[in-house]
Amino acid sequence: MKLAFSTLGVPGLPVPEVLRLATTHGYHGVELRAHPEEPVHPGIDADRRADVVAEFKAAGVEILGLAGYARVAAPGDDEPVLAELRALLDLARDLGAPYIRVFPGASPEQSTAEADATAARRLGTAAEYAADADVRILLETHDSHRTGADAIRVLGPVGHRNVGSLWDVMHTWLGGEQPSETYAALSPFLGYVQVKDIASPDDTTPLPLGQGTLPLAECVEVLSRHGWDGWLCWEYEKRWYEAAAPLPELLGAGREHLARLLNESA
């Protein structure tokens, strides 16, 4: 498995500094938070996109994916959501990123069936555009669809190779799902896995990997046992928790912790 970290952990940090952290601490890739607060987002022009590609190539680091904020199950008209998906897919194509991340984002006012159908319809519509861009849309286990069992109610009906899943280990755990259950549900669709650590269901402040309660060892063991060789991406949610320790000083130990879990599960 290859290791990456998300720029959610280093809010607003310029791309050269992000790449310096990756190369210094031995990460193979970076997940870019695609938001206007960040240096890389759908609003940047063609020249800046080319610069980003060149910077990553020179550093020998891969762009794992773009973490977007489209909410595919949300109520309302389809077209604004589809436009947001197309903009993310265009950016991913231009950067050579293989994935974009989207959220479910259903409203409590929607029935489960309505939310599932809305998400499947939008993802199905966007799938051909994604195929033309050679990018996969990954539905994260998050908010209204936080478990693998929730996600496959959407992904199964879509049935397109350019639409898959992103396993966020915190949300499936909070949803009461065991890692073996999540893997069984998501394995036909799995793009990559977001790892993190927290103290408890009531305190989701990000912690250094291995210092919390999330079943990271079990997740890695399940993936290894099934021969999965994709990406583990550390999503450290510094942007939402200002009091959390700075990510740069944790990256080295985090990589060592993941490497140790991989060695133990081999």
Describe the overall structure.
The protein has 266 residues and is an alpha/beta fold. Helices cover 43% and strands 17% of the residues. The protein has 9 helices and 8 strands. The protein has an 8-stranded parallel beta barrel, surrounded by 6 helices. Helix 8 (216-225) links the parallel strand 7 and strand 8 (231-234). The N and C termini lie close together (11 Å). The relative contact order is 0.15. The model has no long low-confidence stretch (mean pLDDT 98).
* Mean pLDDT over all positions: 98
H/E element order: EHEHEHEHEHEHHEHEH
Which strand order do you get reading across the main beta sheet? 1-2-3-4-5-6-7-8
Q: Describe the largest sheet.
A: 8 strands, parallel, barrel
Q: N-to-C terminal Cα separation, in Å?
A: 11 Å
Q: Please state roughly what percent of the residues sit in beta strands, choosing from under 5%, 5-15%, 15-25%, 25-35%, 35-45% or over 45%.
A: 15-25%
Kindly report the oligomeric state of this protein. Answer: single chain
> Measured on Cα atoms, how large is the radius of gyration?
17 Å
Task: Output the structural class.
Answer: alpha/beta
Helix content: 40-55%
* Total strands: 8
How would the global form be characterised? globular
Low-confidence parts lasting 5 or more residues at pLDDT below 50?
Answer: none
Total of DSSP H or I helical runs spanning 4+ residues? 9
